[in-house]
Write a structure and sequence with these properties.
It is a single chain. The protein is an alpha/beta fold. It has a single domain, classed as Rossmann fold. It contains 16 helices and 12 strands. The strands form 3 sheets. The protein has an 8-stranded mixed β-sheet, with helices on both faces. Strands 7-8 form a two-stranded antiparallel sheet. Strand 7 and strand 8 form a beta hairpin. Helix 3 packs across helix 4, helix 3 crosses helix 10 and helix 6 packs antiparallel against helix 10. The protein is globular and about 55 Å long. The two termini are 40 Å apart. The N terminus and C terminus are likely disordered.
């Protein structure tokens, strides 16, 4: 039994009271809506009293379209957003909102060029540089990379956090979407807005025993109140899914997954060819060794394509979500990202520092060794 307080009595009491236990307050960092359009909103977080002087360049967080934005602001003490504003950064995030049936004709260009472009312009106006750092997580990182390849004049740096760029990999999602039996056109034509249970089912397919594994883990650590609150917060986020605009989904699956059009240079945005070699701003790709949703190879490949000379790869242990919201993230990943942004707050390239050393990627999980890449 782990820990001095790990008594069976405490464990059973906590488990018995889970249903009545107050849910952790997710997305709790105070913020103001500074722009809204259709269903999406741009939030600007309030810096707390006593925070250090703000760097000149704000940070825009771009979450995935599939899950809620507050994974990066999970709960007090487990919030990357809280960490950043506490260190003086001016932080924005996109809340994509909840698409309705009327959003079936929202296109990939609407989201990736128009909506994201407006969010970048609003955030950049807050800086005397006229630019903003952009951090995209998961599909949000894919959107950020595509946008930056066509429009990077207002992007100070690009951080891609577990963001797929190559989609022709051996992962189960790629195998499922490339299968001829998966007719994305029929799915979109039938539903209009793709229901969230369809996408959640696809992620459950990756690890069919995940719910059983989580139940065993919960039983083992239910005595720990801090763990239990964090567990419930992640579960709240993980089950707070949203549906996907149909026409946007048609391009997402048809062009990115089925054709691998981004790395092949065959994707277009707003009528312009998307060429990753056009990305010249400082670029950081962060990958995770045990990420079953975005295999690290499919995320790292962006660094082979961009023309940036200031580019870096940070490869860490952990999975797609846990490595971003864990205690280890608060001690390692978050400070490294803050350093990456701070060191690129308008300094000449020759004076810019590189991120902290990170473990080198390996084809198989075999422990951890540190190396700058």
């Amino acid at each position: 039994m782990a820990g001095g307080d790990a008594s069976w009595t405490k464990r059973l009491l906590n488990l018995a009271g889970v249903a009545k236990r107050g849910r952790p307050k997710v997305g709790a960092t105070p913020a103001d809506v500074v722009h809204s359009e259709n269903k999406w909103r741009l939030l600007r977080y309030r810096r707390p009293a006593g925070a250090p002087a703000a760097p000149r360049t704000p940070i825009l967080l771009v979450p995935s379209l599939i899950n809620r934005h507050y994974v990066l602001d999970l709960m007090p003490g487990k919030s990357f957003t809280e960490f950043l504003v506490g260190r003086g950064f001016d932080v924005y995030t996109i809340d994509w909102g909840t698409p309705g049936d009327e959003d079936r004709f929202v296109t990939f260009d609407d989201v990736c060029e128009t909506y994201l472009g407006r969010a970048i312009r609003v955030a950049a106006k807050a800086s005397p540089r006229g630019k903003t750092h952009v951090l995209g997580y998961c599909l949000g990182g894919t959107l950020a990379a595509i946008h930056a390849a066509v429009h990077q004049e207002r992007i100070a740096s690009l951080c891609l956090l577990a963001a797929p760029v190559a989609f022709d990999d051996d992962g189960p999602l790629a195998a499922w979407t490339r299968n001829a039996a998966f007719d994305v056109g029929a799915l979109v034509d039938g539903f209009g807005v793709v229901p969230w249970p369809v996408m959640q089912g696809a992620f459950h397919m990756i690890r069919p025993t995940l719910n059983l594994s989580k139940a065993v883990h919960l039983l083992d650590r239910a005595w720990n109140d801090e763990f239990l609150d964090g567990f419930l917060a992640v579960e709240t986020w993980g089950n707070d899914n949203v549906s996907f605009p149909g026409e946007c989904y048609r391009t997402y699956i048809g062009e990115l997954y089925k054709k691998d059009a981004l790395v092949r240079g065959e994707l277009s945005l707003g009528g312009r060819r998307v060429d990753l070699a056009e990305i010249r701003c400082p670029t950081l790709a962060v990958t995770f060794e045990h990420d079953t949703i975005v295999p690290w190879q499919s995320a790292k490949v962006v660094l082979d394509r961009v023309a940036a000379t200031d580019k870096h790869h940070m490869h860490l242990a952990g999975g797609h979500v846990g490595a971003v919201v864990s205690k280890a993230a608060a001690k390692g990943l978050w400070p490294a990202l803050a350093t990456f942004f701070a060191d690129r707050d308008g300094a000449p390239p020759e004076r810019v520092a590189t991120p902290a050393p990170a473990p080198a990627p390996r084809a198989r999980p075999e422990g951890a060794r540190a190396k700058r890449s």
